């Protein structure tokens, strides 16, 4: 993973060991596809692997995190992917997608928070909060007024995180993991209309 072209630095509070983390953010580009594909698959497997059938995980990961597929997402103008680094290592990423929302999303000018992945080494250190804040700023710069996402119904940690940050469930959407058809809660957070939000400066203080 390239770590040049850093956009800016955050101070993201203290991790579980009481150490302040400086986080560096930048927009992902096509050259990031191989490393991002491996990172995304590892985080997905760490989070969902223990609770789902191995064959379903393999089928989904083989398609969703194939390098060619990730490369396509990174070159698609409807996507915006931002990376976050902690101590020089990739710690997580957020991905926004402009697409037709599910019927339960009724707010104006919607944009999807398709992924917000944080390596479990950095859970509890403010990385997810900083990454979500960055995604919201980018969404507003793209003139979005409604931010929505879907989340696994059994991922109670993630659901609580999103509720804490102003999201509310408005319905469900189908998600197919291999041969397993699942129904994920769809959550929405309104964004202020007619404004743009600058990417936040340094501050102190989960997927």
Topology:
Blueprint: E1 8-14, E2 20-27, H1 33-48, H2 54-64, H3 67-75, E3 79-86, E4 89-97, E5 110-118, H4 127-141, E6 146-150, H5 156-164, E7 168-177, E8 180-190
Parallel strand pairs: 5-6
Antiparallel strand pairs: 1-2, 2-3, 3-4, 4-5, 6-8, 7-8
Helix pairs in contact: 1-3
The first-to-last residue Cα distance is: 21 Å
- Please tally the helical runs, counting DSSP H or I stretches of 4 or more residues: 5
Strand order of the largest sheet: 1-2-3-4-5-6-8-7
In terms of quaternary structure, what is this?
single chain
Mean of residue pLDDT values:
87
* Portion in strands: 25-35%
- Record field, number of beta strands: 8
| H/E element order | EEHHHEEEHEHEE
- In which range does the helix fraction lie? 25-40%
Q: How would a textbook summarize the main sheet?
A: 8 strands, mixed
Mind telling me the C-alpha Rg?
A: 16 Å
Structural class: alpha+beta
- Overall shape: it is globular
* Low-confidence runs: 1-16, 199-207
How would you characterize the overall build of this protein?
The protein is 29% helix and 32% strand. The chain has five helices and eight strands, in the order ββαααβββαβαββ. It has an eight-stranded mixed beta sheet with strand order 1-2-3-4-5-6-8-7, with helices on both faces. A hairpin with a 5-residue loop joins strand 1 and strand 2 (20-27). Helix 1 (33-48) packs across helix 3. The radius of gyration is 16 Å and the shape is globular. It starts with 7 loop residues before the first strand and ends in a 17-residue tail after the last strand. Mean pLDDT is 87; it is low at 1-16 and 199-207.
């Amino acid at each position: 993973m390239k770590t040049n072209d850093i956009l800016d630095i955050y101070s993201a509070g203290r991790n579980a060991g009481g150490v302040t983390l400086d986080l560096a953010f930048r927009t992902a580009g096509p050259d990031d596809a191989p490393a991002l594909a491996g990172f995304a698959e590892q985080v997905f497997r760490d989070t969902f692997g223990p609770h789902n059938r191995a064959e379903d995980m393999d089928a989904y990961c083989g398609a969703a995190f194939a390098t060619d597929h990730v490369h396509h997402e990174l070159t698609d103008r409807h996507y915006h992917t931002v990376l976050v680094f902690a101590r020089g290592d990739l710690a997580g990423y957020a991905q926004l997608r402009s697409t037709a929302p599910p019927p339960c999303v009724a707010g104006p000018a919607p944009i999807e928070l398709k992924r917000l992945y944080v390596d479990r080494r950095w859970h509890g250190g403010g990385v997810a909060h900083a990454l979500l804040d960055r995604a919201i700023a980018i969404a507003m710069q793209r003139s979005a007024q409604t931010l929505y996402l879907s989340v696994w119904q059994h991922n109670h940690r993630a659901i609580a995180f999103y509720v804490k940050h102003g999201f509310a469930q408005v319905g469900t959407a189908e998600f197919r993991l291999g041969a397993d058809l699942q129904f994920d809660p769809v959550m929405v957070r309104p964004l202020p209309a007619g404004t743009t939000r600058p990417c936040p400066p340094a501050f102190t203080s989960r997927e």
